[in-house]
Automatic annotation (TrEMBL):
<protein>
    <submittedName>
        <fullName>Uncharacterized protein LOC112452298</fullName>
    </submittedName>
</protein>
Length: 255
């Protein structure tokens, strides 16, 4: 139930001379006197309807007289536009910072040890007549910390000699390898009377034999991890190079 006083009669455009007999003027707003429900409205209709023209109210005859009906939404309304602009410098800085944090640095991260090793290389390397690089051992510790290593190397040499005497084929390949190393200048013969003040480290070596496709393949391994009398080896005082194999993290990402 609505209070009749809370509504206003809509304004209708004039429909010509036929509207003169309708009653009160309909071209201006007025107060609503009575509200009829839909159940009564259809009983009030009579035969007689006039449609003046398009976009004009329809005149309908009723037991109470002629009424004018029109679509309220057909009344022209002025379009309205609303714009809202705001600037938040703090939010923009936060977004930029988020992008910076989430961006992956393409440049490799180098440690102080890597930088020191590179500087050592630049200060000590040289090239021979054939264009090959000659570099010094990248020590990270004092070579004087190495103890005596000759006795250990000699003992292991005697053991490898005994093994080679039992396998003539392996002995021939081993001797050929050492002769080739000597001819290339990788090793030189050291006199028993050689002495000096500089630290000396003797690297033991041995053969590793593997069977591939029914044939024995061997390679000579130089063991620079053999401990001296001081408990340190050559590898203990040398810098460690980068890992050549892929890391576990990279391998997992491949799946």
């Amino acid at each position: 139930v609505l209070d009749a006083g809370c509504l206003d009669a809509p304004t209708l455009p004039p429909a010509g001379s036929l509207m003169n007999n309708v009653g009160p003027p309909t071209d201006r707003t007025g107060r609503v006197n009575v509200i009829l429900g839909a159940s009564i409205f259809w009983d009030l209709l009579c035969i007689g309807q006039i449609k003046p023209c398009r976009n004009q109210p329809v005149l309908q005859k009723t037991h109470l007289g002629w009424i004018a009906a029109s679509d309220i939404t057909s009344v022209t309304q002025s379009p309205a536009s609303i714009s809202y602009i705001t600037a938040d410098a703090a939010l923009q800085k936060q977004v930029e910072r988020f992008w910076t944090i989430k961006e992956i640095d393409r440049a490799p991260v180098r440690s102080k040890s890597d930088e020191s090793c590179e500087l050592y290389f630049l200060q000590t390397y040289k090239r021979d007549a054939s264009g090959r690089f000659i570099v010094s051992l990248p020590f990270r510790g004092d070579p004087s910390k190495l103890g005596e290593s000759r006795s250990t190397a000699v003992k292991r040499f005697y053991k490898i000699e005994q093994k080679l005497e039992r396998d003539p084929e392996l002995k021939a390949a081993y001797v050929k390898f050492m002769q080739e190393y000597e001819s290339l200048g990788h090793i030189i013969v050291v006199s028993d009377t050689t002495s000096g003040t500089s630290p000396v480290y003797y690297i033991p070596h041995h053969a590793v034999v593997t069977r591939v496709n029914g044939q024995n393949k061997f390679r000579v391994v130089f063991n620079a991890s053999a401990k001296t009398t001081s408990g340190k080896s050559l590898n203990d005082i040398l810098r460690v190079g980068p890992t050549i194999q892929p890391t576990l993290f990279v391998i997992v990402l491949r799946f």
